[in-house]
Each structure stands twice: as C-alpha cells, then as structure tokens.
Design a protein that fits this description.
Number of strands: 5
CATH class of one domain: Mainly Beta
Order of helices and strands: HEEEEEH
Membrane topology: Single-pass membrane protein
Number of helices: 2
Helix content: 25-40%
Protein name: Preprotein translocase subunit YajC
Keywords: Cell membrane, Membrane, Protein transport, Translocation, Transmembrane, Transmembrane helix, Transport
Distance between the termini: 79 Å
Subcellular location: Cell membrane
GO cellular component, one term: plasma membrane
CATH topology of one domain: SH3 type barrels
Radius of gyration: 30 Å
Length: about 130
C-alpha cells in the first residue's frame, strides 16, 4: 500500500514539473522578439535582429557588425537590465560601518601598526625561568 502511495506521489510531481517547464518555455517564446537582449545556452549575449518562424532560425547580433544565425531553441533566457543602487554613497557608508572580516586587523585597536600583539606593551609570551 505504501509503495502505491509513493508511486502516486512521484507521478504527481513528474506531471507537475513537466507542466511548469512547458509554461516556462511558452513564456520564454513570447519574450523572444526582435530587439530583445538574450543569452544563449552557451553563454553568448546578444540582441535579436530577426526571427524566421519557418526555419526556427534567429539572427543574433553579438557585437556591432557581428551577426550570428542560431537555432531558436538555443536561446536560454531574455536578459533584463539590473537596476543599480539608488544611492551609491549610502552603500559605501554601509560598507565602512560594517564589522571587520574574520582575521582582519583593525588599525589602532590596542596595538601599534607594524608590531605583533604583545610587543607594544612590553609583554612576551616566553616562559620565565623562575
């Protein structure tokens, strides 16, 4: 009985995943239009110049003057521009106020620059011969 339940759950998830993949593929195909910036499966970025529906061929301009003819299915995703930080000065000040990384030395935190710990106050780590 348990085996049948596990099998039913597996089949349910297989159908669910295939529907999700089909939905994502259909959404990608609607976004693939001339002028869209895309990335191919091999990691090549470019702008679509034209699409030939009958041959499933896409003309992709990778650099100005370089046009590549690719199969339509090699388009992996449509690239959307990433919004830059609204105030870069605020991001810089947040970094300055952050705690030091593990093992990072802080200038003026109990020791003088250029000295090892313990040398500034005259103490040593050697055992006394008493």
């Amino acid at each position: 009985m348990i085996m049948l339940a596990v099998l039913a759950v597996l089949i349910f998830f297989m159908f669910r995943n295939s529907r999700k993949r089909q939905k994502d593929a259909a959404e990608l195909q609607t976004q693939v239009v001339p002028g869209a910036k895309v990335m191919t499966n091999s990691g090549l970025y470019g702008t679509i110049l034209s699409i030939d529906e009958e041959e499933n061929e896409v003309l992709l301009e990778s650099t100005p003057g370089t046009v590549l003819a690719l199969h339509r299915q090699t388009i992996a995703r449509v690239v959307t521009p990433v919004a830059a930080a609204a105030t870069p000065d605020a991001a810089d000040s947040a970094i300055d106020d952050a705690a030091p990384e593990f093992g990072e030395r802080i200038e003026g935190a109990g020791t003088e620059p250029g000295t090892e710990s313990g040398e500034a106050d005259g103490s040593t780590d050697k055992k006394s011969n008493d």
